[in-house]
Fold:
Amino acid sequence: MKHHYIEADWINALIRSFANLDLDTSQIVKDIEGIKNERIIAGCRLEVNSARKMWHRADELAQDPLLGLKVGSTQDYRAIGVLAPVIWHSPRVRTALNNIACFQSLISESGSYHIDERQYGEDKVINCEYIPLPSSVPANIHQILAVAIGTIAIIKAISNNAVEVKHLYLPPSLNARLLAKHLDCNVSNRDSNLAISFSTKEFDSPLLGCDNKLYQINLAYAKELLRDKNAGIVLINSVKVSIENGGFCQASIEHVESSLGLHKRTLQRNLFAHGTSFRQLKEEVLKEQSVNLLLRDKIDIESLAEHLGYSEPSAFHRAFKSWFGVTPRKFANIRYYQYPLT
Structure:
């Protein structure tokens, strides 16, 4: 599917950003399925947890409180493909921001913006709250900060700096005072998701230099890509549910094709078109369930192995170590897997 090219370009641009910061990218992408020679394999779907794992590794290597700021302000935004002309030729800033929120999943499924208009003192602002997708690997806070910094840069660029950023709200784990020194807006911490507040002034003014014909052509193509992407998400989630209902480890592709009413070859072809396979999705389900039950529900190894359909605990133990490189007990001590998860 063509939407995978946007995801791939974005991930490759991210890896280049890490390299430009002198981080060891071979360690960041080590054992990440779908990445070879420090580049994502063309047409391959990179699961959310793998992308988040890359960010956690980069964070640990960098030990830099400004990591998200540096990546977000330097990443090559030509890597967003068809979304670049959609955003740059949007007739108004409000339209551009809504397009960013609408088509965000074409770049990453890690989270999305929730946009609303609210009061800010005596003025009104457009509030953009970034809501991470719940998953067995929490989103790294610098990953979210990079998205926010990139969004601010795009909005200021297309408005020729006419749109003012009123406030950037950060979770407590980020240093608001330090970041405020590098940003031309109010920055503060609060116990909530990261959010950006834009002034509504000039938000609905026509943007100069927009080509409406070019905008409409690229907007139609972006919508087509999004429909394909959403259809893939529906199929992938249906397969995952069927794997759970089929006994997790014991689930077969025959069970899935029967439950979904698809011929085996049709199912395989459709999954391949969306950059994945039955084997990969089955492994994703087992990994996600293992993490959730082990850390959140504190299930013992024997009961967990039985629940996931393994014939004996040792088989589960070997599988778990092949996924995460450590035993289940050591896994619980890895910082970014510890609960509560975002």
Summary: The chain has 15 helices and seven strands. The first strand starts at residue 35 and ends at 36. Residues 212-245 form the longest helix (34 residues). The beta strands are 35-36, 39-40, 111-120, 123-132, 165-170, 186-189, 195-199.
